Amino acid sequence: MPKQKPLTIDQIRSEMEYYSKLKPELVDLLALYRSLFEIESGYLEKMEVSVPELDDEKLAVRLKNNMPLLNTGDIGIDSGVFKDMLSDICGVIAKTNESFEESVEDLLKNPDLKESDGKKTPVLIQNALEFRTEYFTDLAKRIPLNNELMFFIIYHTTNPFIEKASYAYRDRIDYEKWQQPVCPVCGRKPSMAMLTDDDGLRILQCSTCKSWWSYPRKQCAICMTKDEDKLEYFYSTDDEAHLVYICNNCKKYIKTTDKRKLDREIDLDVEDLATIELDFIAKDRGYEPGGRVTFAIGPE
Ligand SMILES: [Zn+2]
Ligand SMILES: [Zn+2]
C-alpha cells in the first residue's frame, strides 16, 4: 500500500489542463470543478478541526471489529470557516446559472446557520457533518432550492472538513486488518479505485474524506461477493488505463485507474471527472455507481 500523498493544487490544475486538451468536450465541466477544487484546497490548508482522541488500543479494537475510526458528527469545526466556504461555493454555483442566485442567497441567510443558545454548532452544520439526507431534502423544499443542487453544495462544503479530520488517523491504520468496502476512517463508500502494483490489491479512495485503503481485486468493492462469475471489467478500446469493474451480483460498478499504465502522478477526483463517458456506458448497461462519483449530485 503506497503512502498517500495528495497532489498540490498546481499539480491538480495541470492534470485538469491535460484532460481539457485531450477531451475538449469536458472543458466546461473541468473549469467548474477547477473553481471548486481551488476553493476547497485553500480552506483545507488553513482550516483547523478537532477529533476525539483514540488511543492505539481502542483504534486496533475498532478496526478489528470492522468499525470505522471516526464518527463524523464528532468533528469539531469553526462554524465561521464553514459559512465562509459555503458562501464561496454558492458564489461559484450562482455564476453557472442566473436562476440559482436567489436560492443560494436564501440558503446563506437560513436561520439554521446561526448559532443557537447552548449549542456550539449551528443545526445545518451539525446535520451536514452527520450527513443527514432527510434534513437537507426537507431544507431544499423549504428554501426552495433544487434538491440535487442542495446536496452538491453541502457535499463540497462539508467534505474538506471530514478530509482534514481524516489526517489524524490515516497513518495509524494497519491496512492488513481492514478489507471492508467502506472507508476505515469515516465509513463512507469508495468513489474510485486505482491499481498500483501486481499484488492483487486495489486501492480504493473514500468518496468523502478521500482516504485510501486496500481491497482485494477479485472481490466486489460494494457487495463483497467473491463469485468470479459475477465480476467483470471493461474499458474503452483506446484507453486501457481506465477500467470499470462491474458486479452482476449487486449491479454496481466502480471506475478504476490503472496507474501502472500512466507515467505520472494522478488525482482520483480528476480521473473521475475525466472518465465521465465510462459512467454513461456503465449506466447504459444497467449498472449504478457503487459510491458517490465526483460530479454526481444528489443524496447517496
Ligand atoms: Zn472516508
Ligand atoms: Zn457487488
What does the model show?
The protein is of the alpha+beta class and 300 residues long. It folds into two domains: 25-166, no CATH class; 177-289, FdhE-like fold, CATH 3.90.1670. Helices cover 41% and strands 14% of the residues. It contains ten helices and nine strands. The strands form two sheets. Strands 3, 4, 5, 6, 7, 8 and 9 form a seven-stranded mixed beta sheet that branches. α2 (27-46) packs antiparallel against α4 (79-96) and α4 packs across α8 (147-166). It is globular and about 55 Å long. The mean pLDDT is 92. Residues 166, 183, 185-186, 188, 206, 208-209, 211 line the site of one zinc ion (ZN).
Give a summary of the structure in a few sentences.
The chain is of the alpha+beta class and 300 residues long. Helices cover 41% and strands 14% of the residues. It has helices spanning 9-22, 27-46, 56-64, 79-96, 101-108, 123-129, 133-142, 147-166, 268-274, 276-284, and strands at 49-50, 76-77, 190-195, 201-206, 212-216, 231-235, 242-247, 252-258, 288-289.
Q: Which descriptors would you attach to this protein?
A:
41% helix, two-stranded antiparallel ribbon, 300 residues, FdhE-like fold, 7-stranded mixed beta sheet, 2 domains, alpha+beta, binds zinc ion
